From TrEMBL:
Keywords recorded for this protein, A-Z: Ribonucleoprotein, Ribosomal protein, RNA-binding, rRNA-binding, tRNA-binding
Subunit and partners: Part of the 50S ribosomal subunit.
Pfam family, one: Ribosomal_L16
GO cellular component, one term: ribonucleoprotein complex
Single Gene Ontology MF annotation: tRNA binding
NCBIfam families in the record: rplP_bact
Stated role: Binds 23S rRNA and is also seen to make contacts with the A and possibly P site tRNAs.
PROSITE patterns reported in the protein's UniProt record: RIBOSOMAL_L16_1 (PS00586)
Protein species of origin: Candidatus Buchananbacteria bacterium RIFCSPLOWO2_01_FULL_39_33
Protein name as annotated: Large ribosomal subunit protein uL16
């Protein structure tokens, strides 16, 4: 189950500069515990799915999990034997742009120690540094 948008406005968009801290999706909204990014970067659909599966497996399908980011941005790559020119490469995968401070996952329905361990394991699967948060 790879995450991908159903429809795109532009099939091959330019890559914008991603700067600054997260202005939205930076506070716990749904669950009691969260995994927050402390650095920025791209999280691919495969990495996100891998982290989700680790959490689900660790909590033995208990509790509720929310994924707060979605991979909307398409990333293109040219073939290895392609020469210069010839236009932009083909669509390879989708990424979610994560800024520092973005909440990636939220959980509820399990105790804090178990949630912390599950979120820590999920953080190992992601290319950004993360920290565990609990709702006050």
């Amino acid at each position: 189950m790879s995450l991908a948008p159903k429809k795109l406005k532009m099939r091959k968009p330019h890559r914008p500069a991603v700067k600054g801290m997260a202005a939205r999706s930076n506070a716990i909204a749904f669950g009691a515990f969260a995994l927050k990014a402390t650095t920025g970067g791209w999280v691919s659909a495969q990495q996100l799915e891998s982290a989700r599966r680790v959490i689900t497996k660790f909590v033995k399908r208990g509790g509720k999990i929310w994924i707060r980011i979605f991979p909307h941005r398409p990333i293109t790559q040219k073939g290895t034997q392609a020469t210069m020119g010839g236009g932009k490469g083909v669509l390879e995968y989708y990424v979610a742009i994560v800024k520092p401070g973005t909440i990636i996952f939220e959980m509820a329905g399990i105790d804090e120690a178990e949630a912390k361990k599950a979120m820590t394991l999920a953080g190992y699967k992601l290319p950004v540094r993360t920290k565990f948060l609990a709702k006050d």
